[in-house]
TrEMBL record:
The keyword Nucleotide-binding does not apply. The lineage of its organism: Eukaryota, Viridiplantae, Streptophyta, Embryophyta, Tracheophyta. The chain crosses the membrane at residues 48-70, 76-95. Pfam families: ENOD93 (PF03386). This is Early nodulin-93-like. Keywords: Membrane, Transmembrane, Transmembrane helix. PANTHER family: EARLY NODULIN-93, EARLY NODULIN-LIKE PROTEIN. It comes from the Eukaryota. Coiled coil: none annotated. The keyword Transmembrane helix applies.
Length: 113
């Protein structure tokens, strides 16, 4: 497999064009906004995961002490899996929603089309 002929012609034609390597101010702003949205999503996801781990851990640990079925069937690994699965799900769902919401806020649509 090689480089498709169209791409090869493009790279040969623009080999010495340094303007392709220098991002424009608008592109810099987009990169900055994307990084900010990602950081905002990570922060929100971490908060949600922390809250969810506590909210999930309390009933799980209480159930293991009180409910006979849970006491017989949920060992330490199962308890940790329940708590961590809920925390991981909360992290990714919240981070994804936050990043998408931030991206929608920062989207600049061309109204001429």
């Amino acid at each position: 497999m090689g480089i498709p002929s169209e791409m090869k012609r493009y790279w040969v034609a623009h080999k010495h064009d340094m303007s392709l390597l220098i991002p424009s101010p608008a592109e810099d702003q987009r990169i900055f906004e994307a990084r900010r949205c990602t950081q905002e999503g990570v922060r929100a996801g971490a908060k949600a995961a922390a809250v969810t781990s506590v909210v999930t851990a309390v009933p799980t640990l209480v159930a293991v002490r009180v409910i006979p079925w849970a006491k017989a069937n949920l060992n330490y690994t199962a308890q940790a899996l329940i708590i961590s699965a809920a925390s991981i799900a909360a992290y990714f769902i919240t981070a994804d929603k936050t990043i998408l919401e931030c991206a929608r806020r920062n989207a600049h649509y061309d109204k001429t089309n």
